[in-house]
Design goal:
Length: 416
């Protein structure tokens, strides 16, 4: 039986921990989403989402769906049946987006890449250069592949597309990177950026979020794919006056408003630095402490939002995850598809800090020991601790002895 005392330690790479402020913001009475007051909420979140995507020129859309719905919206609004699409498959989520494109009737040119690597830039440029008639209408790329803990170089992908002189739309899955890893929609000229509410935005699952460039909006005027629920034309018409074409998820919008406030209070650049700093501690625990490898083949692929840890030979990763959950009330991410049983995943994104991650590292370590993995007790925690104590995303201010003496006397903590 799973232990139910204490708090569940949620360290899957989504859904992530929800800040108390966001939870409180979502406890609201239902209201009329057609009232004259409602646009104050809707227009503010739609406008501020653009800042998170780092776009001035693009337009943000919110659907009551998961990120998968935003995937579908991106494809069906800008492409026509039979259009050729270029994509690489290097993990479960890049695979699923390809599967969707195929099932929607698009002709997908697929490059199979070893799991643990990211978008192959040289192959992409080669294929685009070999398409002088520009039959390829879109390039699909997963910015952060959650299944393997791999982050791809989207800026590099834009460079090779430009080098090939190809006008294809650049479509990016930013579900597990937005508001956690640097994403620059305008600078990288991303045309369609897909995300969801349950990861870096620190909300429950339930909102599919899509940012669309002017070039992609122009493509919607000629795209022939059938669409209804996800039709951007309906969204554009309703959003213009601050409304939605159907009933929006009101509590989620209030939660999103609060989450955006939290993000801007910390600052996007500070958030990116914090995620890198926390991720480095987890990687130190896995590689230096436990002596294990990551699924990501090289440091250039390392994700700052999730680490997929390869379990030792003879150990089943699913057993580690099960023991962690049942015995220690710790939720770790499972290995998916090709890496099922070979890894467990530690999600390190959203609302978290060092001590929260210490719990995840300690729990994973105990679960590995329980199933027979030969790791040294305390080694992962020690390695992470050593990294975090020596580094900080914001430089520590050292306090002099004179200042310590003054502060002690001024607060009355020293009696004499």
């Amino acid at each position: 039986m799973r232990r139910t005392t204490g708090r569940n330690f949620l360290f899957v790479p989504g859904p992530t921990n929800i800040p108390d402020r966001v939870q409180r913001a979502m406890i609201v009475a239902m209201e009329d989403h057609r009232s004259s007051r409602f646009p104050d909420l809707s227009t503010s979140v739609l406008s501020d989402l653009k800042k998170v995507f780092k776009t001035d020129d693009g337009q943000a859309f919110i659907f009551p769906s998961s990120g998968t719905g935003a995937w579908e919206a991106a494809l069906t609004n800008t492409l026509s049946p039979g259009d050729k699409v270029l994509a690489s498959s290097f993990g479960q989520f890049s695979h699923l987006w390809i599967d969707m494109a195929q099932r929607l009737g698009f002709d997908v040119v697929v490059q199979e890449v070893e799991w643990g690597e990211g978008v192959p830039l040289e192959w992409t440029e080669e294929v685009l250069r070999a398409d002088p008639k520009h039959e390829i209408k879109a390039v699909l790329a997963c910015h952060n592949e959650t299944a393997t803990g791999v982050t791809s170089d989207i800026a590099g992908l834009r460079r090779v597309m430009d080098a090939a002189g190809h006008p294809a739309l650049l479509c990016v899955d930013a579900v597990s990177s937005l508001a956690s890893i640097d994403f620059r929609m305008d600078e990288w000229r991303v045309d369609l950026a897909v995300s969801g509410s349950q990861k870096g935005l620190m909300l429950p699952a339930g909102l599919g979020i899509l940012a669309v460039s002017p070039k992609a909006l122009e493509a919607t005027k000629t795209a022939q794919s059938k669409r209804c629920y996800f039709d951007l034309a309906d969204m554009i018409a309703a959003n213009a006056s601050g409304y939605f074409p159907y009933t929006p998820a009101l509590p989620m919008l209030y939660g999103l408003r609060e989450a955006l406030d939290i993000i801007f209070e910390e600052g996007l650049e500070e958030i990116f630095s914090r995620h890198h700093y926390l991720a480095e501690g987890v990687r130190a625990a896995a590689t230096e402490g436990w002596g294990l490898s990551l699924c990501a083949k090289e440091p250039k692929w390392y994700s700052d939002t999730v680490s997929a840890v390869m379990v030792p030979e003879g150990i089943n990763g699913a057993h580690v995850i099960d023991v962690a959950f049942r015995r220690y009330n710790l939720a770790l991410g499972a290995g998916l598809s090709k890496v099922a049983g070979k890894v467990f995943r530690i999600g390190h994104l959203g609302d978290l800090n060092e001590l929260m991650l210490m719990g995840a590292i300690a729990g994973a370590e105990m679960a590995m020991l329980d199933v027979g993995a030969e790791v040294r007790p305390g080694s992962g925690v020690a390695a992470a601790s050593n990294y975090w104590r020596k580094h900080d995303p914001v430089p520590k201010r050292r306090v002099s002895k004179e200042e310590q003496f003054y502060e002690a006397h001024s607060t009355g903590s020293v009696q004499g």
